[in-house]
Design a protein that fits this description.
Layout lengths: L6 E6 L5 H13 L3 E6 L9 H8 L14 H8 L2 E7 L1 H9 L5 H8 L4 E5 L3 H5 L1 H12 L3 E2 L3 E4 L5 E5 L3 H12 L8 E6 L4 E4 L2 E3 L6 H12 L3 E6 L10 E5 L3 H11 L5 E4 L6 E3 L18 E3 L3 H8 L5 E8 L3 H11 L4 E6 L11 E2 L2 E4 L4 E3 L3 E2 H17 L18
Parallel strand pairs: 1-2, 1-3, 3-4, 4-5, 8-11, 8-13, 11-12, 13-16, 16-17
Antiparallel strand pairs: 6-7, 9-10, 14-15, 17-19, 18-21, 19-20
């Protein structure tokens, strides 16, 4: 599990959004984390102590005057990360000024680990200069202060101040606690389909959902790479920690890739780029008059081949091959012709693989001829396999690097 052996303090303050901390706790436990919960006195007005103790598997720390009066110190030294979610304006102010009058503030001052704070309050409270100053102070302390959501609030008003959703906070926790073997590396990734216009209302495209590429972008960012994701049209959110560049056509994707190509260390080209586009685009909607209609088509730019032709010895290039027949021969030919370091082969013949699925079944073939076949897996797990292969080849012959290869639990990828 992706957070296996990670020790996390979940501190919950007295906000109407305290119920979301229960869902965050479930996500952390499902991902393998050992979680201990600390509550402020006001939380009992919103969520019961029994809920947190039952789900965490530990007694809840909620008072400074229990039998173990120094528990705040032991907790502060036990954890890999302290997460305060939700963090009220009152708690932010206490943190910023070093006040220590409850279990959470005591643990915060004793914490020897990184601290992540997720604010939650009404819009006017959030925008108040004192709150903004307190959050600035916490950032200067080295704490990670998460952004807030914007929307309807418990007061009935609308604006900034909503606690981030549990899934968003969870993904940021995973990002923070993941190993960073790709730190310092710039990685460019293409994903999704392209759309080649016919007229103002029609286009040629394919069935790519972008799920595979987005999963790879998420994993690469967690592993420390500075990721630029050049994406065709999809319905997916840009993963946390990733720079997103949205394009439509193959020509736009070609230009976006080449604009930053020279500064990249790693390329992973997973986009399903249309091979052909209409030679001319009508400036008005084409009417349905003829029984038979044909289009003149022109080859689109071969983005993968163009990068392979200019890549420097220090750069690393990964391509994809989605095949329906002669899979291995076609993939090996593409690997050689396009100067790839390795290629990811998958087949539409495999049930649960290919476009639109949340799973995939791949074979990795590298330039030395090594072939690695993997069973059907969730795409986030396939993404980890691909990134692990990149890391192994970049660090060869150094085999001392330990990689987490079981990313169960990460969301929104």
């Amino acid at each position: 599990m992706i957070l296996s052996q990670k020790k996390i303090i979940l501190a919950v303050t007295g906000s109407i959004s305290a119920y979301k901390a229960v869902f965050l706790l479930r996500l952390l436990k499902k991902a393998g984390a050992d979680v201990k919960v600390v509550l402020s006195p006001a939380v009992s007005h919103f969520v019961g102590e029994l809920t947190f103790s039952s789900l965490s598997g530990h007694p809840v720390f909620c008072g400074l005057w229990n039998a173990n009066w120094s528990e705040h110190v032991s907790l502060g030294n036990w954890a890999d990360l302290m997460v305060v979610a939700p963090a009220t304006a009152n708690t932010l102010a206490k943190f910023a000024h070093g006040l220590c009058d409850n279990a959470i503030t005591a643990v915060y001052l004793a914490a020897a680990c990184p601290v992540m704070v997720a604010p939650a309050m009404d819009a006017d409270m959030y925008k108040h200069p004192s709150t903004q100053r307190n959050m600035k102070t916490l950032r200067e302390f080295g704490n990670e202060v998460l952004p807030v959501g914007d929307g309807f609030l418990a007061s009935g008003l609308q604006g900034p101040g909503r606690l981030l959703e549990p899934e968003d906070i969870f993904n940021r926790i995973v990002h923070t606690l993941s190993p960073k073997p790709l730190a310092g590396k710039k990685l460019l990734l293409t994903a999704g389909p392209t759309r080649e216009p016919i007229d103002p209302v029609r286009y040629i495209s394919n069935h790519s959902s972008g799920k595979m590429g987005y999963a790879i972008a998420s994993v690469a960012a967690r592993m420390g790479a500075k990721v630029t994701l050049v994406s065709g049209p999809t319905n997916l959110p840009i993963p946390y920690g990733v720079i997103g560049v949205k394009v439509q056509s193959s020509q736009e994707m070609y230009e976006a890739v080449h604009q930053v190509a020279q500064e990249q260390d790693i390329f992973i080209m997973s986009a399903a780029v249309c091979d052909y586009a209409p030679s001319e685009v009508a400036n008005k909607k084409i009417k349905k008059h003829q029984d038979v209609f044909s289009l003149d088509m022109t080859k689109t730019p071969d983005i993968l081949k163009s990068i392979g032709a200019i890549k420097k010895p220090s750069q690393f290039l990964v391509g994809f091959a989605l095949e329906t027949d002669n899979e291995m021969a076609n993939a090996q030919g593409k690997l050689s012709r396009k100067n790839l370091d390795f290629i990811v082969l998958n087949s539409l013949k495999d049930k649960g693989a290919g476009f639109g699925h949340d799973t995939n079944k791949v074979t990795l073939i590298d330039k030395s001829g090594e072939v690695e076949r993997y069973p059907l897996k969730r795409k986030i797990e396939v993404a980890q396999d691909i990134i692990d292969k990149v890391i192994r080849m970049l660090h060869a012959p150094n085999d001392s690097l330990e990689i987490n290869t079981n990313p169960q639990g990460i969301l929104n990828s």
